[in-house]
Amino acid sequence: MLILPYLGFQCEKFRKKLNGLVSKFYGGIIVKVVFRNRNNIGSHFKCKDRIDKLSKSNVVYQYSCDICGDSYIGKTIRTLKERKSEHFKALTKDYLHYIIANHVFKANHNSSFDNFTIIDTASNNYSLTVKESLNILEKGPKINENNDFNLYLFYFFDCLKQFLSFDIFRRLFSMVSLLFFDTYSCNFTY
After folding, report:
1. C-alpha distances in angstroms, 32 versus 14, 22, 62?
2. Which end of the chain is less congested by CB atoms within 10 angstroms, N or C?
3. pLDDT of amino acid 183
Protein backbone atom coordinates (compact mmCIF):
# COMPACT_ATOMS: atom_id res chain seq x y z
CA MET A 1 0.00 0.00 0.00
CA LEU A 2 1.29 3.43 -0.93
CA ILE A 3 -0.21 6.47 0.82
CA LEU A 4 0.20 9.81 -0.93
CA PRO A 5 -1.28 13.29 -0.48
CA TYR A 6 -4.34 14.07 -2.59
CA LEU A 7 -3.56 16.75 -5.17
CA GLY A 8 -6.67 16.76 -7.32
CA PHE A 9 -7.61 14.98 -10.55
CA GLN A 10 -3.94 14.27 -11.42
CA CYS A 11 -3.88 11.65 -8.67
CA GLU A 12 -6.06 9.20 -10.61
CA LYS A 13 -3.80 9.55 -13.68
CA PHE A 14 -0.76 8.91 -11.47
CA ARG A 15 -2.36 5.80 -9.94
CA LYS A 16 -3.09 4.31 -13.39
CA LYS A 17 0.40 5.13 -14.69
CA LEU A 18 2.11 3.67 -11.58
CA ASN A 19 0.06 0.48 -11.73
CA GLY A 20 0.86 0.15 -15.43
CA LEU A 21 4.62 0.51 -14.83
CA VAL A 22 4.65 -1.91 -11.90
CA SER A 23 2.70 -4.58 -13.82
CA LYS A 24 4.96 -4.07 -16.89
CA PHE A 25 8.21 -4.58 -14.94
CA TYR A 26 7.09 -6.85 -12.07
CA GLY A 27 4.24 -8.87 -13.55
CA GLY A 28 1.65 -9.97 -11.00
CA ILE A 29 2.35 -7.35 -8.33
CA ILE A 30 -0.51 -4.95 -7.65
CA VAL A 31 0.21 -1.69 -5.87
CA LYS A 32 -2.64 -0.24 -3.89
CA VAL A 33 -2.36 3.55 -3.96
CA VAL A 34 -4.36 5.52 -1.39
CA PHE A 35 -4.69 9.28 -1.49
CA ARG A 36 -5.35 11.22 1.68
CA ASN A 37 -6.32 14.82 2.05
CA ARG A 38 -4.59 16.39 5.05
CA ASN A 39 -6.54 19.59 4.56
CA ASN A 40 -9.64 18.61 6.54
CA ILE A 41 -11.86 20.66 8.81
CA GLY A 42 -10.00 19.51 11.93
CA SER A 43 -6.79 21.04 10.64
CA HIS A 44 -8.39 24.51 10.64
CA PHE A 45 -10.15 24.46 14.02
CA LYS A 46 -9.34 23.18 17.46
CA CYS A 47 -12.31 20.98 18.21
CA LYS A 48 -11.41 20.05 21.78
CA ASP A 49 -11.43 22.32 24.78
CA ARG A 50 -8.22 22.65 26.74
CA ILE A 51 -8.13 20.72 29.99
CA ASP A 52 -7.14 22.70 33.05
CA LYS A 53 -3.80 21.47 34.42
CA LEU A 54 -5.38 20.46 37.73
CA SER A 55 -7.91 18.27 35.87
CA LYS A 56 -5.25 16.21 34.09
CA SER A 57 -4.59 12.65 35.24
CA ASN A 58 -1.67 10.25 34.73
CA VAL A 59 0.91 12.93 35.43
CA VAL A 60 4.33 13.30 37.00
CA TYR A 61 4.26 16.50 39.02
CA GLN A 62 6.70 18.71 40.85
CA TYR A 63 5.99 20.64 44.03
CA SER A 64 8.28 23.54 44.92
CA CYS A 65 8.27 24.93 48.45
CA ASP A 66 7.65 28.67 48.17
CA ILE A 67 9.71 29.32 51.34
CA CYS A 68 12.98 27.41 50.81
CA GLY A 69 12.71 26.41 47.13
CA ASP A 70 13.17 22.69 47.81
CA SER A 71 11.16 20.47 45.51
CA TYR A 72 9.42 17.10 45.43
CA ILE A 73 8.61 14.97 42.39
CA GLY A 74 5.67 12.55 42.51
CA LYS A 75 3.17 10.83 40.25
CA THR A 76 -0.56 10.25 40.26
CA ILE A 77 -3.02 8.33 38.14
CA ARG A 78 -5.82 10.48 39.56
CA THR A 79 -6.23 14.14 38.71
CA LEU A 80 -3.58 16.55 39.95
CA LYS A 81 -6.34 18.39 41.84
CA GLU A 82 -7.15 15.23 43.84
CA ARG A 83 -3.49 14.54 44.61
CA LYS A 84 -2.84 18.16 45.60
CA SER A 85 -5.85 17.99 47.90
CA GLU A 86 -4.48 14.83 49.54
CA HIS A 87 -1.18 16.56 50.26
CA PHE A 88 -3.01 19.53 51.77
CA LYS A 89 -5.31 17.33 53.89
CA ALA A 90 -2.28 15.41 55.14
CA LEU A 91 -0.83 18.66 56.43
CA THR A 92 -4.03 19.69 58.22
CA LYS A 93 -4.38 16.25 59.86
CA ASP A 94 -0.68 15.83 60.75
CA TYR A 95 -0.22 12.80 58.48
CA LEU A 96 3.55 13.13 58.38
CA HIS A 97 4.04 10.01 56.28
CA TYR A 98 3.12 12.25 53.33
CA ILE A 99 6.49 13.62 52.27
CA ILE A 100 5.38 17.17 51.44
CA ALA A 101 3.43 17.48 54.71
CA ASN A 102 6.45 16.17 56.57
CA HIS A 103 8.70 18.80 54.93
CA VAL A 104 6.30 21.68 55.63
CA PHE A 105 5.79 20.56 59.24
CA LYS A 106 9.45 19.86 60.12
CA ALA A 107 10.77 23.01 58.42
CA ASN A 108 7.93 25.05 59.97
CA HIS A 109 6.99 26.52 56.60
CA ASN A 110 3.62 28.07 55.82
CA SER A 111 3.25 26.77 52.27
CA SER A 112 0.49 27.90 49.94
CA PHE A 113 0.28 24.62 47.98
CA ASP A 114 -0.01 26.53 44.71
CA ASN A 115 3.39 25.48 43.44
CA PHE A 116 2.46 22.26 41.64
CA THR A 117 3.50 21.86 38.02
CA ILE A 118 3.12 18.98 35.59
CA ILE A 119 6.49 17.87 34.27
CA ASP A 120 5.51 14.70 32.39
CA THR A 121 2.55 12.53 31.38
CA ALA A 122 2.05 8.86 30.53
CA SER A 123 -0.72 6.49 29.55
CA ASN A 124 -0.29 3.93 32.35
CA ASN A 125 1.01 3.57 35.90
CA TYR A 126 4.14 1.63 34.96
CA SER A 127 5.25 4.32 32.48
CA LEU A 128 4.46 6.98 35.07
CA THR A 129 6.69 5.26 37.62
CA VAL A 130 9.56 5.00 35.14
CA LYS A 131 9.16 8.66 34.14
CA GLU A 132 8.96 9.70 37.79
CA SER A 133 12.19 7.78 38.45
CA LEU A 134 13.97 9.39 35.52
CA ASN A 135 12.86 12.87 36.58
CA ILE A 136 14.05 12.22 40.14
CA LEU A 137 17.39 10.99 38.79
CA GLU A 138 17.73 14.03 36.52
CA LYS A 139 16.55 16.79 38.86
CA GLY A 140 17.52 15.41 42.28
CA PRO A 141 14.73 17.09 44.30
CA LYS A 142 15.70 17.65 47.94
CA ILE A 143 12.35 16.67 49.50
CA ASN A 144 12.56 13.27 47.73
CA GLU A 145 15.95 12.52 49.34
CA ASN A 146 14.39 10.82 52.36
CA ASN A 147 12.13 8.71 50.15
CA ASP A 148 12.91 5.05 49.39
CA PHE A 149 14.66 5.57 46.09
CA ASN A 150 15.43 1.85 45.59
CA LEU A 151 11.83 1.36 44.46
CA TYR A 152 12.22 3.91 41.68
CA LEU A 153 15.46 2.35 40.49
CA PHE A 154 13.82 -1.07 40.55
CA TYR A 155 11.11 0.06 38.10
CA PHE A 156 13.65 1.81 35.92
CA PHE A 157 15.99 -1.19 35.72
CA ASP A 158 13.12 -3.64 35.40
CA CYS A 159 12.11 -1.76 32.26
CA LEU A 160 15.69 -1.51 30.95
CA LYS A 161 16.48 -5.21 31.29
CA GLN A 162 13.98 -5.97 28.53
CA PHE A 163 16.09 -4.09 26.00
CA LEU A 164 19.71 -4.76 27.03
CA SER A 165 21.94 -7.82 26.99
CA PHE A 166 22.60 -9.34 30.41
CA ASP A 167 26.25 -8.21 30.50
CA ILE A 168 25.45 -4.57 29.61
CA PHE A 169 22.50 -4.54 32.01
CA ARG A 170 24.62 -5.92 34.89
CA ARG A 171 27.41 -3.36 34.33
CA LEU A 172 24.97 -0.44 34.05
CA PHE A 173 23.07 -1.54 37.16
CA SER A 174 26.30 -1.92 39.16
CA MET A 175 27.54 1.55 38.13
CA VAL A 176 24.28 3.31 38.99
CA SER A 177 23.89 1.41 42.28
CA LEU A 178 27.41 2.36 43.34
CA LEU A 179 26.88 5.94 42.25
CA PHE A 180 23.70 6.40 44.30
CA PHE A 181 24.03 3.92 47.16
CA ASP A 182 27.73 2.96 47.53
CA THR A 183 26.56 -0.64 47.37
CA TYR A 184 25.01 -3.21 45.07
CA SER A 185 21.75 -2.99 46.98
CA CYS A 186 19.15 -4.81 44.85
CA ASN A 187 19.17 -8.29 43.42
CA PHE A 188 17.46 -8.57 40.04
CA THR A 189 16.64 -11.76 38.22
CA TYR A 190 17.20 -11.40 34.51
Report:
1. 12, 11, 49
2. N
3. 40
